[in-house]
Design a protein that fits this description.
alpha/beta; Aspartate Aminotransferase, domain 1; Aspartate Aminotransferase, domain 2; 7-stranded mixed sheet; 4-stranded mixed sheet; binds pyridoxal-5'-phosphate
């Protein structure tokens, strides 16, 4: 039997099974999220648009740490700022003046930001935003659409199993360990369905602290939709919160709210704000945020200065490198290159989605074959040194050469997918069909 190209990764993953419950820290980093066992699982080092796995294979990276890397891996400007901060100490007995400097940058950059609190991650920022919304309004319930992290306030929505189908709002996630008493305090609504949201607000009249949602993922909202959600929220004395942990920074350094022209009361950011160093924030209007001064919202590491320095350097570099225009350029080039690949193969497929997340949508007549076919595409791309899912997230380090290599790999992979679609799938698919860890409720 031939040795796997990712043998060391597979050995480490076996070891992790004994040592780490669930094997990985992020569900989306489980091997089952990619083309296991063809995909690498562990990285040795990364620079720019590429990473090298623990077996020494190099890949062009279109996943970019679930979009947390925005300038490119180990960006020189950010890492120089980080190293300088390390030499000055990362955590003090007192506060760091960088807290004020970064707050001023965020207030200048993000439309809704008048006041700022920090965290070290996105889910944590969402939990803080919910605490502030509940404290500011004196109400308990949160209506939400999208993914907002692992905390109890949010995962409690999974107790609202549909009695008919017994489906959880987030298929695949059981709320094990989440207190049952929280059931009914966070209620999901369907993105795009204004009538449904209005009905939910009426049913919970006087009890809703906030309507919280991802403004968009791969597709922009229908014109006027977010404005209408904001108006409905305010009509019910609820705060309107946009979770920009995923949508923030690439469309505009001011977030999707800046790009779409809709200003929420509160917004959460994390991931790309610090190019891979732990950092998150909750920003919002003075009226929404100021009451937080009387709430217990407090943690030792939220003052940690390496993350603050990384965020300041990242935002400075995004502005200096004219990031919004560059992301448009890179995204459109990639879209065109993938469309050319599709045309050259003559397969029924399209490139959908906004330029910050071009997505390859292969036309699979039998819905049961959709995931196996997507896995086959991923398997073949990864074999050719291109690490991707079907959605591609660029960094500013991605070059025309990276796009050209990706397009060639896509054409070759789609040739194989075409054969998979015409009866050869079982012979061609070496990987296990990828598993979606959860549904996000927002496209
Ligand atoms: C919109 C959104 N909110 C919250 C989170 C959670 O962020 P983190 O994984 O940093 O806790 C994510 C992560 O995928 C996200 O996409």
């Amino acid at each position: 039997m031939t040795q796997s190209k990712v043998q060391r990764s597979l050995e480490l993953y076996q070891k992790a099974d004994r040592l780490i419950p669930g094997r990985t820290q992020l569900i989306s980093r489980r091997a089952s999220s990619f083309a296991h066992p063809i995909s690498p699982i562990y990285t040795a080092h990364a620079k720019g648009s590429r990473f090298t796995d623990v077996d020494g294979n190099e890949y062009i990276d279109w996943v970019n740490a679930v979009t947390a890397i925005i300038l490119g891996h180990a960006d020189d400007a950010v890492d120089t700022a980080v190293k300088a901060q390390i030499d000055k100490g990362s955590l003090y007995s007192l506060n760091s003046p960088l807290e004020i400097e970064l707050a001023e940058i965020l207030v200048d950059t993000i439309p809704c930001a008048e006041m700022v609190r920090y965290t070290k991650g996105g889910g944590e920022a969402c939990a803080v935003a919910v605490r502030i919304a509940r404290g500011t309004t004196g109400k308990d319930k949160i209506l939400f659409s999208g993914y907002h992290g692992w905390h109890d306030w949010y995962q409690s929505a999974n107790f609202l199993a549909d009695p008919e189908t017994d489906e959880f709002p987030f298929a695949g996630i059981e709320p094990i360990g989440v207190p049952r008493v929280l059931a009914g305090t966070a209620l999901p609504f369907t993105y795009g369905d204004l009538d449904g949201l209005e009905a939910l607000l009426r049913e919970n009249q006087g009890e809703v602290a906030a309507v919280m949602m991802e403004p968009m993922r791969s597709e922009p909202p229908a014109p006027g939709y977010l404005e209408a959600v904001k108006a409905l929220s305010h009509a019910h004395d609820a705060l309107f919160i946009l979770d920009e942990v995923s949508s923030g920074w690439r469309l505009s350094p001011g977030g999707a709210q800046d790009w779409l022209g809709v200003t929420p009361d509160i917004s959460t950011f994390a991931k790309s704000m610090s190019n891979g160093y732990p950092m998150g924030c909750v920003v919002g209007s003075r009226a929404a945020m100021e009451p937080a001064g009387r709430m217990f919202v407090s943690s030792s590491y939220w003052s940690e200065a390496v993350g603050l320095a990384a965020a300041m350097a990242t935002i400075t570099e995004l502005n200096r490198r004219n990031s919004a225009a560059r992301f448009k350029e890179i995204g459109e080039k990639l879209r065109t290159a993938l469309q050319d690949a599709i045309a050259s193969v003559g397969i029924a497929a399209a490139v959908t989605g906004v330029h910050t997340m071009p997505t390859l949508a292969i036309d699979v007549p039998d819905p049961a074959l959709k995931k196996p076919i997507d896995t086959l595409f991923m398997q073949e791309m990864i074999k050719r040194g291109v690490f991707c899912a079907t959605a591609f997230s660029a960094t500013l380090a991605h070059t025309d050469a990276d796009i050209a290599i990706t397009a060639t790999a896509a054409a070759e992979s789609l040739e194989i997918v075409k054969r998979g679609l015409t009866g050869e799938l079982d012979e061609l698919l070496e990987a296990e069909t990828k598993r979606e860890p959860f549904r996000r409720l927002v496209r």
